[in-house]
C-alpha cells in the first residue's frame, strides 16, 4: 500500500462504504421506528461522502471540503459512520501533507458545521455536550497523528535530500580528484618530454659540429641522445600506463625526489651545462610530494637554461632546508637578453613550476638575476604536508 497509495486509499474507502452499507442493512431488520431510507438515497450519499478519499493525496484540500460538504446530509440522515471517518481522515491528511494553516481552517469549518448540526439531531443538552466533546477528541487525535506522520515524513525527506547531496558531492570530489591527477600527470609529461627533448637537441647540435673533427665527441653525444630517449620513453610508458590502468599504482617505479638531484645534475653536466649543486640540510627524508616538486622545479629550470642560456653557461642549484620550509635557488650566468626583452619567462614550464609550488602553499619567482643570467627562486613550506 505504501508503494501504491492510490490502491491503499481505495481499499480504505471501500471498507468504509462496506461498514455503512452493513449498518443500513442491519437497521432495516431491527429498526421499528420506520426511520430507514431507501437504497437509492443511502447508497449515493454514502458513495458521495467516501469516494473523494481515493484522491486525498493528490488533492488534499479539495477532497477535505468535498467530504465535509457530503457529510452534512449523510449525518443528518444518520446513514452511518462514514461522515465521521472521512472527516477525521481528511484532517489527518491536511496536517500531514499540507500544513497547519489549512488544517486549522478545516477544524474551524468542522466546528461550525458540527455546532449547527448537532443540536438539530440531539434534543438533550447533555447529549449535545457529550457529542461535541467526542468530536473534539476525535479531531484532536487525528491532528496529533497527522503531526507525527508529517514530522516523520519530513525527516525522511530531509535524510533523502542530504543523502542525495552527499552522493552529488562525492561524485564531484571524485571528478575533482581525477582532474587533479590528470593535471599532475600532464605536468609530469611536460617535464619529462621538455627535459629529454632539450637534452637531445643540444647533443644532436653538438654531434653535428663534431662528427668530422672529433668523432669521439660525436659518438658520446649520440650515446647520450640514445640514453636520454630511452629514459624519456620509460617515463612516458609509466605515466601513460597510469592513465590507462587505475590499479597500476603498485607496479610503478619510485618517483624521483630531492635525493635524486645529484643524478639530475650529473646528467645535465654530461649534456654540456656545468652545474654546481649545493644542498644545505637533509633532503632525503622529505615528504614524497614535496621531494618530487623540488626535483621537477630544478629539472625545468635547468632545462630552460639549456634551451636559452647559450654556450659557455654555468648553472648553480642551491637547496636549503630549514625546520619549516625548503628554499630553492637555481641560477645561471647565460645570455637571456632575448627572453628579457620579450618578457618571456619559461612559458608553460614556468606555469608548471608555479603550480607545483602553489600546490604545497609555496611561492616561486623567476626572472633575470641581479648579476645577469636567469634565476628561479622557490619556497615550499613543510608544515602543509
TrEMBL record:
<keyword id="KW-0418">Kinase</keyword>
<dbReference type="InterPro" id="IPR036890">
    <property type="entry name" value="HATPase_C_sf"/>
</dbReference>
<keyword id="KW-0067">ATP-binding</keyword>
<keyword id="KW-0808">Transferase</keyword>
<dbReference type="GO" id="GO:0016020">
    <property type="term" value="C:membrane"/>
</dbReference>
<keyword id="KW-0597">Phosphoprotein</keyword>
<keyword id="KW-1133">Transmembrane helix</keyword>
<feature type="transmembrane region" description="Helical">
    <location>
        <begin position="128"/>
        <end position="146"/>
    </location>
</feature>
<dbReference type="InterPro" id="IPR055558">
    <property type="entry name" value="DUF7134"/>
</dbReference>
<dbReference type="GO" id="GO:0000155">
    <property type="term" value="F:phosphorelay sensor kinase activity"/>
</dbReference>
<dbReference type="GO" id="GO:0046983">
    <property type="term" value="F:protein dimerization activity"/>
</dbReference>
<dbReference type="GO" id="GO:0005524">
    <property type="term" value="F:ATP binding"/>
</dbReference>
<feature type="transmembrane region" description="Helical">
    <location>
        <begin position="6"/>
        <end position="25"/>
    </location>
</feature>
<protein>
    <recommendedName>
        <fullName>histidine kinase</fullName>
        <ecNumber>2.7.13.3</ecNumber>
    </recommendedName>
</protein>
<feature type="transmembrane region" description="Helical">
    <location>
        <begin position="37"/>
        <end position="55"/>
    </location>
</feature>
<dbReference type="InterPro" id="IPR003594">
    <property type="entry name" value="HATPase_dom"/>
</dbReference>
<feature type="domain" description="Signal transduction histidine kinase subgroup 3 dimerisation and phosphoacceptor">
    <location>
        <begin position="181"/>
        <end position="246"/>
    </location>
</feature>
<dbReference type="Pfam" id="PF23539">
    <property type="entry name" value="DUF7134"/>
</dbReference>
<dbReference type="Pfam" id="PF02518">
    <property type="entry name" value="HATPase_c"/>
</dbReference>
<keyword id="KW-0472">Membrane</keyword>
<dbReference type="Pfam" id="PF07730">
    <property type="entry name" value="HisKA_3"/>
</dbReference>
<feature type="domain" description="DUF7134">
    <location>
        <begin position="2"/>
        <end position="153"/>
    </location>
</feature>
<keyword id="KW-0812">Transmembrane</keyword>
<feature type="domain" description="Histidine kinase/HSP90-like ATPase">
    <location>
        <begin position="292"/>
        <end position="382"/>
    </location>
</feature>
<keyword id="KW-0902">Two-component regulatory system</keyword>
<dbReference type="InterPro" id="IPR050482">
    <property type="entry name" value="Sensor_HK_TwoCompSys"/>
</dbReference>
<feature type="transmembrane region" description="Helical">
    <location>
        <begin position="75"/>
        <end position="97"/>
    </location>
</feature>
<dbReference type="InterPro" id="IPR011712">
    <property type="entry name" value="Sig_transdc_His_kin_sub3_dim/P"/>
</dbReference>
<keyword id="KW-0547">Nucleotide-binding</keyword>
